[in-house]
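#structure-requests
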Amino acid sequence: MDKKDSHKGKIDAILIKGKRYCDPDFSAKQLSEELGVSASQLSRILKDEYGMTYTDIVHYQRVQDAIRHLRDQRFAPYSIDDIGRLVGFKNRQSFFTAFKKVSGTTPERIRQRELF
């Protein structure tokens, strides 16, 4: 396994499997420190391995979680804003902007589709 593969495995373990993307305060700088690489190296690794920036990866993961929650009846009592906070967004505007960019629709539409 080359160095790049080991970085991708570590990134997956920390950011995705460890659900650090749900922590609104976990930053690319913290991830680079945990990996023992510079911020510019991390940026290059993410672009090469994922084809995305740190923010794009985090938003993608958060939106996927939000979609699962919006479709899950156990989360029906939660407001859409609650779900946004639950998956790591600090405010409604950033949640809705990222949600629309990633999914092409709104959280309300996802939730409404599941009610019928």
